[in-house]
Amino acid sequence: MRRSAVRSVVVAGLLVLALAGAGAGPAGAWAGAGAAGPGAAGAAEADVAYHGRVALADGQLRIWLVPENEGPSELPNATVRVRLSVDLADRQELAGGCARAGLREVVCETGPLPLHGRGRHIGLVLDLRESAPEVVVRVDTWWNGGATDRDLSNNEHVVLALDTGDAYAF
Predict the structure, then answer these.
(1) pLDDT, position 42
(2) Which of 23, 33, 97, 142 is exposed most, by the fewest CB atoms within 10 A?
(3) Residue 19: is its pLDDT beyond 80?
(4) How far does Cα 80 stand from its chain's mean position?
(5) In this predicted structure, which of 2-11, 101-110, 117-126 has the lowest mean pLDDT?
(6) How far apart are CA 27 and CA 140, in angstroms?
(7) CA-to-CA distance for 124 and 93, rounded, in angstroms?
(8) Residue 127 burial (C-beta neighbours within 10 Å; 0-12, 13-18, 19+)
(9) How far apart are CA 4 and CA 20, in angstroms?
């Protein structure tokens, strides 16, 4: 049952990206999704943000993040995307609500994002195909239900994790 919900979110995200134009990144998807403007009927506006930590040790990347919504509208769900600079191992045991979206990508549903509230805590333990001295981790919103987000600075993060076991915050 949970996998079908994730698939629905993934398919919806793909549709949003397709409507925004081929090759458009997340910013293009938001622009296309919110083209009607925040005042249009049914158009929501939300300020989604992510805060968390990443740690790399011995070919295993640990990611913990919390999605937040600063409003002005609540969101029933959103999808966070985590992209890596290295390939993931073929087999992964992912947290509930998460799915692999490519050789280097994982997407996770946030759950409901109440106005001025937090979504579910997401914890990932990702095995890498090969050990690496460092991994660049990119975190962004892949799908937000078509809501307009005017402040992308708090939901697009790039973190360099060194193979030290130390946690790096974003």
Answers:
(1) 59
(2) 23
(3) no
(4) 2
(5) 2-11
(6) 10
(7) 9
(8) middle
(9) 24
pLDDT, tens digit (0-9, with 9 covering 90-100), for 78-120: 999 999 999 999 999 999 999 999 999 999 999 999 999 999 9
The count of C-alpha atoms lying within 13 angstroms of the C-alpha of 66, restricted to the half-sphere facing its C-beta, is 10
Q: Residue 102, Cβ neighbours under 10 Å: how many? A: 12
Before 72, cis peptide (omega within 30)?
yes
Rounded CA-CA distance 115/40 in Å is 19
CA dihedral for 85, 107, 1, 125, sign (positive or negative) = positive
Backbone angles phi, psi at 52, to 5 degrees: 180, -160
